[in-house]
């Protein structure tokens, strides 16, 4: 039986990746900080390995030697920093990846599938994208076969933005919103993203893929469409984009280019690894609000 080791399994995308891996019959192993949370989510159908500090090379090497995985899916990532808790882009994206990939040299899995992000580029101004790119390079230089996936905005019921919006909009249909109408995403369904991670196991070559859906939409439209699915409306109260630059400089830097496919180089399209066209945006946003 094929052994599959997954990090970041209890996160938004990870839950779908694990569910699909179990459905396909893989021998699934997780590296987690919170075994109780993992058990609550996934039950007894998989094996859980506890690791408090992902920078612990000794801990990683022990788990890897015990499991000897055929494939590794690395999903750990954050969208914002909590510096007081030492949760930073450098630590989570770069250092954790570096520790894992150095440790993997000793067990040489058949392939590593790595979660990156659309927007990584040598010229990117944000630490988010810079550390994501550095993590990619750590994997590539190991010489281990790899597939790197770079999704745009991911749609799904557990999307953090939607989770934060629901309680706000129940109280008041007003939303202070930066004037970023000319910045676009190309949202991709979380079910497609999860399937791409499992399809990557079967992919015959190494490669970097951009994961995008079928429509280019602004963040304002994504929120509007999300709210409309509940039969409601939201009134946007604009504030200058310069204010976002002052109060949330890292978020501002992330918007250096449209988050759409084809803007950042010659990575492969989602259709090549998915084997079909992605789930349409309208269908995905509708499904997202059903939970």
Instruction: Provide the structure class.
Output: alpha/beta
CATH class: Alpha Beta
Terminal residue distance: 34 Å
User: How many structural domains?
Assistant: 1
Please provide the count of β strands.
Answer: 14
Averaged pLDDT:
94
Rg from C-alpha positions? Answer: 19 Å
Strand order of the largest sheet: 3-2-1-4-5-6-11-14
Number of helices: 12
Description:
By secondary structure, this protein is an alpha/beta fold. The chain has helices at residues 12-23, 35-42, 57-67, 89-104, 127-140, 160-171, 190-202, 219-228, 241-247, 249-254, 270-274, 281-288, and strands at 3-7, 27-32, 47-50, 71-74, 111-115, 146-151, 154-155, 174-178, 184-185, 188-189, 207-211, 217-218, 235-239, 268-269. The strands form 4 sheets. The protein has an 8-stranded parallel β-sheet, with helices on both faces. The radius of gyration is 19 Å and the shape is globular.
């Amino acid at each position: 039986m094929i052994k599959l080791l997954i990090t970041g399994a209890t996160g938004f995308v990870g839950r779908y990746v694990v569910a699909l891996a179990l459905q396909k019959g893989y021998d699934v192993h997780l590296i987690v900080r919170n075994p109780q949370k993992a058990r609550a989510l996934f039950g007894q159908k998989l094996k859980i390995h506890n690791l408090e500090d992902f920078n612990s090379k000794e801990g990683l090497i022990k788990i890897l030697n015990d499991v000897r995985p055929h494939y590794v899916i690395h999903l750990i990532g954050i969208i914002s920093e909590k510096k007081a808790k030492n949760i930073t882009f450098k630590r989570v994206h770069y250092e954790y990846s570096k520790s894992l990939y150095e440790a993997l040299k000793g067990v040489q899995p058949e392939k590593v599938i790595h979660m990156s992000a659309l927007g990584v580029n040598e010229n990117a101004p944000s630490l988010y994208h810079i550390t994501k790119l550095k993590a990619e390079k750590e994997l590539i230089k190991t010489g281990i076969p790899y597939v790197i996936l770079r999704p745009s905005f991911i749609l799904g019921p557990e999307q953090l933005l939607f989770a934060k919006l629901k309680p706000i909009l129940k109280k008041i249909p007003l939303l202070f919103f930066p004037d970023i109408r000319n910045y676009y995403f190309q949202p991709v369904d979380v079910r497609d993203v999860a399937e791409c991670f499992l399809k990557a196991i079967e992919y015959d070559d190494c490669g970097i893929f951009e994961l995008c859906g079928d429509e280019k939409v602004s963040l304002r439209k994504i929120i509007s469409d999300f709210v409309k699915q509940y039969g409601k409306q939201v009134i946007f109260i604009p504030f200058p984009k310069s204010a976002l630059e002052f109060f949330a400089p890292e978020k501002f830097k992330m918007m250096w280019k449209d988050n759409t496919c084809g803007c950042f180089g010659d990575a492969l399209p989602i259709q090549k690894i998915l084997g079909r066209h992605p789930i349409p945006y309208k269908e995905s946003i509708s499904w997202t609000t059903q939970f």
